[in-house]
Design brief:
This protein is mainly beta. It is 13% helix and 46% strand.
Length: 399
């Protein structure tokens, strides 16, 4: 593994190992020159191929002929930013250091630098190493808001082409309406070593489509005219060498309704309800407001409430907004129309007529009851008279 340049007298040693450390002496006549070779070995766990949220573990070993120095180690990521990690010694002779970094992200992919420093002997050595993190460019948990009957497209963007991941892996997309509910598999997919993606639809009762994506690194589903029960968690999972990583999208749906439905008669009242499919985070709320209305026409939901109601007694356009961090995510409007005058009069007339009819029926019932009572009393008197006649009783008239 070594060769000497006869012209420059340089010694070249290839494929250094820790055992190559030591003192090298060059003798030329009466001149002797000695050089101490200090060798470092940096080992990256999992061969530098990680999934999102996995732990990176670096092992740095050193060897030299003299007592080994206490090293100062600094890590720089692919963006040349310092990464905080406290190395710890595996043994007391300063031969082996271990550094751990938790929860790697897809954006951590690239060439990292390990800088090694010592004052005595003076060491300033930078060791590059590659980190490849297969995962999603989406956040770990993304929340998507939509309205009922709208079309929703859910997308997960993978980074395997960006980091030139040359090995195949598989994955699947699951859905469950609540955290504690049973998960339903919607589709599975696999990506070959050449980056070709193949998807297979698994669910038949859940209505969704697999659109033709322009990018092979995108997993996408389309939900046409979503219903309220289509809400929940959609989880995309990757599997590589029996290791897993996942990314979730929580779909929150909103709808508005009125009770009673239809135009509002003059003098009547209607209740408008704005509702979401799951509790909102603490930084989000629902708000009813009347267009061109006043502050008195605004009604907000309380923290973590799933619906808010407002009572309306006049025509107008009402909007329900879902607001997160003072940002309107989605809005739905409900136009309250006033019933025509003849309908109002008809309603009033029907109400008045109904009251008169009820009063008339009550009076008729009372009169009928009195007449029935009188007939009953006459019948009793006639029965007593017949009884007296049967007993041969006579009635004497005064002369």
């Amino acid at each position: 593994r070594s060769e000497i340049d006869l012209n420059s007298k340089h010694l070249k040693v290839r494929d250094l190992t820790l055992s190559d450390a030591g003192i090298y002496t060059c003798e030329c006549g009466s001149h002797t020159v000695s050089i101490s070779l200090h060798v470092f070995k940096l080992t990256n766990s999992l061969d530098g191929h990680f999934l999102s949220n996995e732990v990176l573990e670096l092992t740095l070993m050193q060897n030299a002929s003299h007592p080994l120095p206490d090293l100062s180690i600094t890590l720089f990521n692919s963006n040349n930013n310092t990464v905080r990690s406290t190395p710890f010694l595996q043994n007391n002779n300063h031969q082996k250091y271990i550094l751990k970094l938790n929860r790697l992200e897809a954006t951590d992919s690239g060439t990292w630098m390990c800088h090694v420093h010592s004052d005595s002997p003076l060491i300033n050595q930078t060791i590059p190493f590659d980190v490849k993190v297969l995962g999603f460019q989406n956040p770990d948990l993304e929340r998507k808001y939509a309205t009922v009957d709208s079309t929703v497209v859910l997308s997960w963007h993978l980074n395997f082409q960006k980091i030139k991941w040359k090995e195949g892996f598989t994955g699947q997309l699951n859905w469950k309406q609540q955290e504690s509910a049973t998960a339903h598999e919607l589709l599975d997919f696999n990506v070959t070593a050449l980056g070709t993606q193949h998807k297979t639809k698994k669910s038949s009762h859940f209505r969704f489509e697999i659109p033709k994506s322009k990018s092979e690194s995108t997993i996408e589903v389309k939900l046409p005219k979503v219903h309220f029960n289509h809400s929940g968690q959609y989880q995309c999972q990757l599997a590589y060498n029996r290791r897993y990583t996942q990314s979730k999208i929580e779909l929150v749906l909103m709808k508005v309704s009125a009770n009673p439905v239809g135009p509002i008669p003059r003098g009547a009242e209607m209740t408008l309800t704005c509702q979401v499919s799951s509790p909102l985070p603490s930084n989000a709320h629902l708000r009813w407001e009347r267009v061109n209305g006043t502050q008195a026409d605004i009604k907000k939901s309380k923290q973590h409430e799933v619906k808010v109601e407002v009572n309306v007694s006049a025509a107008g356009l009402w909007n329900c907004h879902l607001i997160e961090d003072n940002d309107r995510k989605i809005s739905l409007n409900y136009p309250v129309e006033e019933a025509p005058v003849w309908i109002s009069y008809a309603v009033i007339g029907a109400s008045t007529g109904g009251s008169v009819l009820v009063f008339g029926l009550a009076c008729l019932c009372i009169i009928s009851g009195i007449s029935w009572q009188q007939r009953r009393q006459r019948a009793k008197r006639m029965a007593r008279a017949r009884q007296h006649l049967l007993e041969n009783k006579t009635c004497q008239c005064q002369q």
